[in-house]
Amino acid sequence: MAALIICYPATAMATLKVGERAPDFALPDQSGHTVKLSEFRGKQAVVLAFYLRASTPG
């Protein structure tokens, strides 16, 4: 199981509508290996969790 943690400023996120696919992106996992969202398409469910960074307004 791979964990993908995304930290972007709110202004950097694209606006998606319900039901649209998330754009493909690649980020390092907790072991430093690059993981692409598209690697999971059709293989298993992916949950993207977005939350505020600690000690920031919002």
Describe this structure in words.
Strand 1 (26-28) and strand 2 (34-36) form a beta hairpin. A two-stranded antiparallel ribbon has the order 1-2. The protein is flat, with a radius of gyration of 13 Å. The protein starts with 25 loop residues before the first strand and ends in a 22-residue tail after the last strand. The protein has 58 residues and is largely without helices or strands. The chain is built from no helices and 2 strands. The model has no long low-confidence stretch (mean pLDDT 75). The protein has one domain. It has strands at residues 26-28, 34-36.
Give a concise summary.
This protein has 58 residues and is largely without helices or strands. The protein has one domain (1-58). It has strands at 26-28, 34-36.
